[in-house]
Amino acid sequence: MSTDPNEYKYELQCHLGGGDFDTPCLARQLDCKDREDGAKGIPVMWLSRPRGVPGAVWAHHSGPTCLYDPKPEDLLPRIAADIQRQFHNLPVNAGKVVAQPSPNTLRGAETNFYAEAVEQQFDITMFGQKVHVVATPVQYTWNYGDGTVFGPQSSMGGALPQDRWGEKTRTSHAYASTGDFQVVMTTTFQGTYSVNAGPPLPIPGQGQFNAPPQTISVWRSLTRNYADDCNTNPQGQGCPGAGMR
Description:
By secondary structure, this protein is mainly beta. The protein is 9% helix and 43% strand.
């Protein structure tokens, strides 16, 4: 079921209804040149009206644009039925995972993770028609590699200045054990498609794409107490002069 609040149709450019055409309009009508495969185009205007509203009238939405097919209206349902499969097969870039600090962090400390993902556009051909697809990232799921999964949720996180590393954030994670962990982010995209420069229509469902894993090494820190500071005992462990003769 479509989630678009509008419904759409197209009409020949300059068409006044019945068999009448606007003569001045015909003089400046869009020239639809034949495609390389020999398909001939017709100049059309796209109209829209609110879906399910009694008495709603058709109004100009976009155009003029060229529609290529002897019976293009027969292909639109076929494209709509197949567009979700096409969307899942597109080479959508899920983005990348950024960690702060990286590549090493400390056990028990908050490691800030955030995503870098952007909207992408693709032009494909379906049933001989030009289809423009826009994929927009809307949700993110974080698998931190230690059995903890967070999401899906809408925040992609964000960078922290270095003096704030270790603060808890919406997408940060504290590891309870040491080791190397593979962090995987799954980005959920929503899409729209338009046929032959027609109105953008929503693609049913969503597409999920995984970003390349980010390896994070979790170390442990040791804390020791000493009776003297380095001014009192310059040769004490951890002091700059320790071990120097």
